[in-house]
Design goal:
Lysozyme-like_dom_sf, Lysozyme_dom_sf, antimicrobial, two-stranded antiparallel ribbon, Phage_lysozyme-like, globular
Length: 226
């Protein structure tokens, strides 16, 4: 960042990164649109810890939207920049393979064939995996942020997205984003966005575009609209 008359101004490169995110928004959101009936069906059977099916759909949908926006979309297996084998929108095939195998079986896919690149996913299958990841990210984040369910769905989505990049629950950068959590808890979203930009998580090159996108979400607070 550079400073000009006391105001924080991002470099042109950073602005271009944020602009690029906006350009891919329509493509990314297509996965979420396809996910809607999947989310609704799963929330019908599993509402906990949500107060209603509507809240469940909203929160899982918010996470799915952000994951779809922040990840590239692949119909076949690929090597993710995070160092693991993935498919769809960053669906990590190396993270808890037994659990992933069961999820793939639930949508009539063979884990080994997917992993070996023998299967090409269609859009609905990518959406199914996106919902699995959204739910997993929320569950893992809830273990690290006890107040998570006091936040609006948009804020839960930001922390779930950060958890998604960390992988396992014990790798969540809790100390790094503690100030962000505190600002969100006090509903000071503008300050929360500033705190997020200061974190080590945001400074990592592989998170740069993701960071600025999440900052956009934070700045818009709980009243975020497209």
């Amino acid at each position: 960042m550079i400073r000009l008359k006391g105001e924080a101004v991002r470099t042109s490169g950073s602005k271009m990164a944020r602009f690029s995110v906006k350009l891919i928004m329509l493509v990314a959101l297509s996965a979420v649109v396809l996910s809607a009936p999947v989310i609704s069906a799963r929330c019908h059977h599993r509402r906990e810890p949500y107060r209603s099916k509507a809240e469940c759909v909203d929160c899982v949908g918010s996470v799915a939207e952000l994951l779809a926006q922040n990840e590239d979309r692949h119909h076949t297996v690929y090597n993710h920049r995070g160092g693991f084998r993935a498919i769809g929108c960053g669906y990590n095939l190396d993270d808890n393979p037994d659990e992933r195998r069961k999820e793939l079986e639930a949508i009539q896919l063979d884990y080994d064939k997917v992993y070996d690149g023998e299967i090409r996913l269609d859009n609905m299958q990518i959406s199914e995996l996106l919902v699995f990841d959204a739910w997993r990210a929320l569950d893992r984040t809830r273990q690290n942020i006890k107040r998570l369910d006091n936040f609006c769905c948009q804020m839960r989505a930001i922390f779930a997205d950060i958890q998604h990049t960390a992988g396992s629950t014990d790798r969540f950068p809790r100390d790094d984003i503690n100030e962000v959590i505190e600002k969100v808890d006090s509903k000071d979203f503008k300050e929360a966005a500033k705190e997020l930009e200061k974190t080590d998580w945001c400074s990592k090159s592989r998170h740069k575009i993701r960071c600025y996108n999440n900052i956009d979400y934070l700045e818009q607070g709980c009243g975020r609209t497209e």
